[in-house]
Every structure is written in structure tokens, then in C-alpha cells.
Write a structure and sequence with these properties.
Layout: E1 21-29, H1 33-42, E2 48-51, H2 60-63, E3 68-69, H3 78-88, H4 95-114, E4 129-130, E5 140-141, H5 148-161, E6 166-169, E7 173-181, E8 188-197, E9 201-212, H6 233-240, E10 245-246, E11 251-258, H7 270-274, E12 278-280, H8 300-314, E13 319-322, H9 327-334, H10 336-343, E14 354-363, E15 366-368, E16 380-382, E17 387-388, H11 400-418, H12 443-457, H13 464-481, H14 489-510, E18 534-538, E19 543-548
Parallel strand pairs: 1-2, 1-9, 2-6, 9-16, 15-17
Antiparallel strand pairs: 3-5, 4-5, 7-8, 8-9, 10-15, 10-18, 11-14, 12-13, 13-14, 18-19
Helix pairs in contact: 1-5, 1-11, 3-4, 4-11, 6-14, 9-10, 12-13, 12-14, 13-14
């Protein structure tokens, strides 16, 4: 049961006090690729405010290494890109959404070039293309070898700063959406959000339209490639506002995160395997051969499971990536950022194996939307990793995510900027949360324990009894954490993480099959009856299944 997270309330530490208010036409929450692309599109129709949880460039977008997938080569076709995406999605992709992404993708790359983004080029000056897992062609454009996300973020931030209609608020934490409307469920609409800035305190940002582009939930798992801020705040906010969510049982685990004791799990781009590196065990054997025709270049769920199964058999802590064929100079030229990272750990990939293991990487599910980012809550749009429109199905194809942010960020920005969501609101905001009389838990301990429980029980391989046990643990922490009023980001984050963890685990328990990134040992095969998206929203006592599509 999810009673603790079904309450409709504002998680804000104040009573009936007046707060400073700001007005804008469109509010964008998140400064990754989807949020910034949405802001640029919305700014063509009105004023925009972008709220970033940390510094503008500190997003999962900026960490992206591999590149942007698009049909740009003469020997490639849209039909092939569509087919590769559908194959990776394990029977759950929305075909119209995939076709929209593929058809509109090349123009978005051209737009980035017009904005001044630098892409790597070959000796003849043509765009340099590489290949990643699940792709049948070399169709990935990249920047500075392995720093595509950083250059993409730089380009979009510069474009937004140059637009007089866009205001950028960094280090501004969005706590909750402001909703108002009819008394009956489903009649509320989003009127903006309450945010907190360490210098200016709490403030209300009123908006005719609000776009959620806050990224994923990777920090729910102990092993993750995600940045520290990826705590699912936006998904939790949308859930409290009555928005429907879908496919959160599908979390993509990247097969190759650097495994060094005591260090964070830095991503080792799939492009390294695309350039010829192999996965091997400590004896040097390529254990992915025979598991899939594409071996190391199989879809990520296949490779991650292959690693986990091999480690279970060998009882070793990690496997290795063998990139020695590239040589020291060749690796450094193609992947300068990774070469520098590895050098910091004393690893020369030209002569030594790179220790790796899977880690939580990309949130496939999210707030359910149409092709223009509309949610079931009027005034609220969503795009990027925080959203779900059926594009990725049960498993994301490599390098489709940055393209997703561009294509569907633009579409959401246009839809939000041109939507008639009424006049400027005139609503009084009141928080009536009563002080809790329950015992208190140490939030640092709760966060650590939650992430460990999710990794062990709701990770790459799952089973029904462990999912049930994980739900029991989450509900215990919810009971003593969600009823509290906090006045710092750490407290708000753990409330959001618990909310998302409960939804993810309940959805995983309900999907009794293995499909894409969701593997159940008690239901080891895909089931035709489960080949659909399960869409939930907050109910009286548990997530309410509102649609199957």
C-alpha cells in the first residue's frame, strides 16, 4: 500500500505567510537538453523562466559521453533507425513516437550546428559518425570525442542566455507545483511552482504553462552513473499534483561503469565498445560471445544481464573492458575525457584492462505525455527523462536520449507556449501540514539504506518476494519521513526519493514478466498479455492503474 505518498499537500515549511511572487508565461523546471530546448521553443511565444536545481551546466546532459543518434549518412535510412529503436524497446515502443523522433531528429542536429555546436569531423570535413550498441549503422554524432553532453549543454545555455525572453535561475530548488481548480479529482490545473533559493528563500513562480524537464531518478540506486541531483524530484512533484506516470519499472542499467573501490561509478561510454573494445573476464575470455549475435554491442539490458550472470557464476566483483587494440594514443585521441579520467586512477587503457560493472543509468518511464508533452493535468507539460511518451519501450536504444530531449523538448515548448491555459492566477497558497508526532529517523541513514535496498532488491534481476520486502521497507521509511516538515534540500530530496521508490517497486511487482530492462526470475519470459504500458496515478491507498495502452 502507498498510503503515505497518496496525500495531496505542499511539502513546504511555512504556514499561511505571504511569499514573493514572480509571473511568467512559461516555467521550465530543469536545465538539461530537454528543458533548455523547450525554453528556446517557448520563448518564441512569450516570456520564460528556467529553474535549475544546481548550476545550469550540472545536469545528466552535461555528463553524456556517447553522442546524438540521427540519420545523417548516405547508407542509413529512417526505416533502419526506427527498426533498431523498436528492436531495443522489446515490443513496447509506441511506433508513432519513434517515427516522430527519427523523422525530426536530423533537423535538430542541423539546428545545433546553426547555434554553434561543434561536432567532430573527419579529414574531409564531414560529420564523424560512430556506432553504439543496438545500432545497425554508424549514426552517432559526437563532440570532442567523448564530451558531447558538455558541448551540447554549453551550446544550449549560451542560446538561452542570448534570448532576452528567457530568465535563468540556477541553484533554485522546485518544491511542489501549485494547483487549483475544481474540488473533484482530475479538475485541478497547474499554475506554476513553489521554489527555494538559498539566497532569496521561498518564492512562488506563477505561470500560464509549466514544463517539467527535471531529469531522472538514478540516485535511487546505490550504483549509478547519475549526478548527485538526480533524485526524482520532478516525478514526485507531478505525482502529488495528480499526474499519471508510466513504465517506471523499466530502469536502464548501463553495462560499463568504472569499478574502482571508493570511487564514484563514472560512465565508460558505449562508444568505446562501438570502436572495437571487448568485454572480458579476468582470464581474458569474451563471455558475451554466444549470448547474443551482437555480443558486446547487444542492447544494454542484454549486456547488463550477461555481466550480472557471469559475475554470479564466477563470484568476481567486476569484469573488464579490453580496449588495448586502440592503443594508448588512439584511445586518447578518440576518448580524451575518458583517457584523462582513467589516468587519474593509474589506468592506461592502451596496455591495461578497464574494470567495469553495471550501474543505474537512464529512467525509461516517467510522467505520461502525448507527443507534445501534454500530461493529464491541464497546464503541466513534461519532456526528456522525466517524461514517458512510449519512445523507449522497455529499453532505450543508445544515444536516442539526447535526441529525445531535442525533438520532444521543442514540441513541448511550442505546445506550452501556444496553449491557452487561462489568465494569470490569483490564488492564495496555504500549507496546512500539522506537526508530526511520530518518531524521527536519520535522513542520511534513510537515504543510504533506501539506495542499498533498491540496488539489492529492485535492481537488474528481480523476484516477487524481494520486491514485496522492498515495499515493506520503503513504507516503513515513508511512515516516519513523509509526515515531516523540512527546511533543507536533503529532507525534500529524501521525501521525493521515497515517493519514486514506492512507485517503481510497486510497478515492478505488478509487471509479472521479463521484458527489456525488467527481469523477473519468477517470470523469466515475456508475456503477450503484458505487452503494454501500465499507467498509474496516486489513488486512495495505492497507485491506481488508470489505463493500459
Amino acid at each position: 500500500m502507498l498510503t503515505p505518498i497518496s496525500e495531496r499537500r505542499y511539502l513546504i515549511p511555512f504556514r499561511s505567510q505571504l511569499l514573493p511572487a514572480i509571473f511568467t508565461d512559461t516555467l521550465v523546471i530543469g536545465s538539461g537538453v530537454a528543458g533548455l530546448r523547450a525554453a528556446l521553443a517557448a520563448a518564441e511565444h512569450g516570456d520564460v523562466i528556467v529553474v535549475a536545481k544546481d548550476e545550469l551546466e550540472k545536469t545528466n546532459t552535461a555528463w553524456a559521453q556517447g553522442g546524438i543518434a540521427a540519420v545523417l549518412a548516405d547508407d542509413d535510412t529512417a526505416e533502419q533507425h526506427v527498426a533498431d529503436t523498436l528492436a531495443a524497446g522489446a515490443g513496447l515502443c509506441a511506433t508513432e513516437t519513434v517515427r516522430t523522433l527519427v523523422d525530426e531528429g536530423p533537423r535538430e542536429v542541423e539546428q545545433l550546428i546553426e547555434l554553434g555546436m561543434r561536432f567532430d569531423r573527419d579529414d574531409a570535413g564531414a560529420l564523424a559518425l560512430t556506432r553504439e550498441g543496438g545500432h545497425g549503422r554508424r549514426r552517432i554524432v559526437h563532440s570532442d570525442g567523448d564530451a558531447t553532453g558538455r558541448e551540447l549543454s554549453r551550446t544550449l545555455v549560451a542560446a538561452c542566455r542570448a534570448d532576452a525572453r528567457i530568465r535563468l535561475f540556477d541553484k533554485c530548488f522546485a518544491l511542489d507545483f501549485i494547483t487549483a481548480g475544481g474540488a473533484a479529482r482530475g479538475e485541478d490545473r497547474v499554475l506554476g511552482a513553489i521554489a527555494h533559493h538559498p539566497k532569496y528563500g521561498l518564492q512562488i513562480i506563477w505561470a500560464r504553462s509549466t514544463i517539467l524537464a527535471s531529469g531522472g531518478i538514478g540516485q535511487l540506486w546505490r550504483e549509478t552513473t547519475n549526478s548527485r541531483i538526480a533524485t526524482g524530484d520532478g516525478v514526485a512533484m507531478a505525482w502529488r499534483a495528480g499526474a499519471a506516470v508510466a513504465d517506471l519499472e523499466f530502469m536502464q542499467f548501463h553495462p560499463t561503469a568504472l569499478y574502482v573501490a571508493g570511487a564514484g561509478r563514472s560512465l565508460i561510454s558505449e562508444a568505446v565498445r562501438g570502436e572495437g573494445a571487448h568485454l572480458v573476464d579476468k582470464s581474458g575470455r569474451r563471455f558475451m560471445e554466444g549470448r547474443h549475435p551482437l555480443a558486446e554491442l547487444a542492447p544494454r539490458d542484454v549486456v547488463s544481464r550477461g555481466i550480472v550472470e557471469h559475475l554470479a557464476q564466477t563470484q568476481e566483483p567486476n569484469v573488464f573492458l579490453d580496449a588495448r587494440a586502440l592503443g594508448t594514443a588512439g584511445f586518447a585521441k578518440r576518448f580524451p575525457g575518458l583517457a584523462s579520467l582513467l589516468a587519474g586512477f593509474g589506468i592506461d587503457p592502451g596496455v591495461a584492462l578497464i574494470p567495469v560493472m553495471p550501474a543505474a543509468h537512464y529512467t525509461i518511464g516517467g510522467v505520461w505525455t502525448d507527443l507534445d508533452g501534454r500530461t493529464n493535468v491541464p497546464g503541466l507539460f513534461a519532456c526528456g527523462e522525466a517524461a514517458c511518451n512510449g519512445l523507449h519501450g522497455a529499453n532505450r536504444l543508445a544515444s536516442n536520449s539526447l535526441l529525445e530531449g531535442l525533438v520532444f523538448g521543442r514540441r513541448a515548448g511550442v505546445a506550452a507556449g501556444t496553449s491557452d491555459n487561462g489568465t494569470r492566477p490569483n490564488t492564495r497558497v496555504v500549507s496546512d501540514i500539522r506537526p508530526s508526532d511520530k518518531g524521527e529517523l536519520d535522513l542520511v541513514d534513510v537515504r543510504s539504506s533506501l539506495r542499498s535496498a533498491m540496488w539489492r532488491n529492485v535492481g537488474i534481476v528481480r523476484t516477487g518476494n524481494r520486491l514485496d520486502d522492498a515495499l515493506d521497507m520503503i513504507h516503513f521509511w515513508c511512515r516516519y519521513s513523509l509526515d515531516k516538515i523540512f527546511d533543507d534540500i536533503g529532507g525534500w530530496e529524501i521525501q521525493n526519493m521515497l515517493t519514486c521508490a514506492a512507485i517503481v517497486t510497486a510497478a515492478a511487482a505488478a509487471r509479472e514478466e521479463s521484458r527489456g530492462t525488467h527481469t523477473r526470475t519468477d517470470f523469466p519470459s515475456p508475456r503477450t498479455a503484458e505487452a503494454h504500458h501500465r499507467i498509474y496515478r496516486a489513488g486512495a491507498a495505492r497507485p491506481e492503474l488508470v489505463a493500459v495502452t
